[in-house]
Specification:
By secondary structure, the protein is of the alpha/beta class. The protein is built from 14 helices and nine strands. The protein binds adenosine-5'-triphosphate and magnesium ion (MG).
């Protein structure tokens, strides 16, 4: 599997994290959201981490999905300890040689030499300060799938202590603790920043840009280097396929591999066309999946989702027009409370169908749904039809 390096983006983010850009607020924490399978973890580990290290930072990376049953606070503490322990080794050996049982780091923190490597008794903020003191360098903590921290009280407390560590360690013009949080669930990530009581109140969620034309050019060059006979490659068509694959490199590369395989059996068909066909097949499968999810909803939930798809950013869930719309589409009268419950249940599903912003704006969770809605509407195929007929009576919201 090839890795396409994203150095320019990594360097830009490093500068922002170090507070070197005039505008922006990344020195208070960088919150990155991007849909699933679009390359977040790869970027954080293969591009951002080396770029931070090249800029002189010590990097701690932790994926809160690595072990979803473990307390996020403990996972972060372990990751810090793993980076801290070998550095403390030198300090602690010196301490043992000198016959003392504890060492003082950075002039403040006392660490029991026998317990080095374990963080118990040491708060996360202290451990980060110790790491900064020992390494004599800024510390960058990258928390992948950070929204998981909000699933437990301990996790929430961890986020609060990270915020406090940031405020203790950083001064204007001097960033000693850089925080990067990423997640595929923008709605949940928002909870870290959106309310007065949220740990990182005031920060913004940035959409991590997907891989783009430069990735496609890179792939095209690889194709030509291995199969010169295929030049010139139609990069426009490949870019179109990549978009249809939802900017997910894995699916795209798999289709490309199949199209280029000597066993593909393609005769007289360019490989670009075969990849595009695969992308369209994948899109159709994804759309069939969306239709079946839509049809599994209760009538009011369907009507709310329909309204949201139709109105986009103008969506107001409870105004008179919306209630009228629900009544018309689901053939029954609904109260605001019922609409609220329906909207909430669309948000709470796994995977969620709806997300909500800090300011109470709603959107569909998966942007692919908009394309599906628009294309179906244009083709006169909206709403999707239930092959088994209506199972619920219109207005049967009693179970909602
Ligand atoms: N820069 C890249 N060049 C080539 N392939 C990539 C690149 N980035 C990601 N990929 C591929 O895309 C797939 C998904 O990448 P990754 O796991 O980083 O995404 P993710 O957004 O973290 O996914 P998830 O939502 O599952 O956590 C992997 O197969 C990976 O190898
Ligand atoms: Mg990931």
């Amino acid at each position: 599997m090839i890795h396409f390096p994203r150095k320019v983006l990594a360097d830009e983010l490093v500068a922002a994290l170090r507070g070197q850009t005039v505008f922006g607020d990344a020195q208070n924490g960088l919150f990155l959201a991007a849909p699933r399978r679009t390359g977040k973890s790869t970027f954080l580990q293969a591009d951002l981490q080396p770029a931070l290290e090249a800029a002189g930072a010590v990097v701690v990376y932790v994926d809160l999905w690595a072990d979803p049953r473990r307390d996020p606070g403990a996972l972060i503490a372990d990751a810090v300890a793993r980076v801290l322990a070998p550095r403390l080794g030198v300090v602690s050996r010196a301490a043992r040689a000198a016959g003392v049982d504890s060492v003082t780091i950075a002039g403040a923190l006392k660490i029991d030499v026998s317990k080095i490597g374990r963080i118990d008794g040491v708060t996360l903020a202290d451990a980060l300060r110790a790491l900064h003191g020992v390494a004599k360098a800024p510390v960058a903590l990258i928390v992948d799938e950070a929204q998981h921290a909000l699933t437990s009280e301990a996790g929430e407390a961890t986020m609060a202590s990270l915020k406090s560590a940031r405020d203790q360690l950083n001064r204007p013009g001097q960033v000693n603790l850089m925080l990067v949080m990423s997640g595929s669930d923008r709605d949940k990530l928002l909870r870290l920043v959106n309310t007065n009581g949220a740990p990182f109140y005031g920060s913004q969620i940035t959409r991590m840009p997907p891989l783009g034309p430069d990735f496609i050019d890179h792939v095209a060059q690889l194709v030509v280097s291995q199969r010169p006979g295929l030049a010139p490659v139609d990069t426009h068509s490949l870019m179109q396929s990549f978009e249809s694959f939802g900017h997910r490199p894995q699916f795209f590369m798999e289709a490309l591999g199949q199209a280029l395989s000597p066993l593909s059996g393609l005769q007289g068909v360019r490989f670009e066309q075969a990849v595009l066909d695969a992308a369209h097949r994948r899109q159709r499968d994804d759309e069939a999946q969306m239709a079946s999810e839509y049809l599994a909803l209760r009538p009011l939930e369907r009507a709310v989702l329909w309204r949201l798809l139709e109105q986009g950013p103008r969506f107001r869930p409870y105004d008179a027009e919306a209630l009228h719309f629900y009544r018309e589409k689901a053939a029954s009268k609904f109260t605001v409370q019922q609409a609220q419950r329906a909207l909430e249940s669309l948000r709470q599903r796994t995977p969620a169908l709806v997300w909500k912003s800090a300011r109470g704006e709603y959107a569909v969770d998966d942007a692919a749904m908009h394309r599906w809605f628009e294309q179906s509407t244009q083709a006169g195929k909206w709403p999707p039809e239930d092959p088994q007929g209506e199972l619920l009576l219109p207005g049967d919201e009693s179970a909602a």
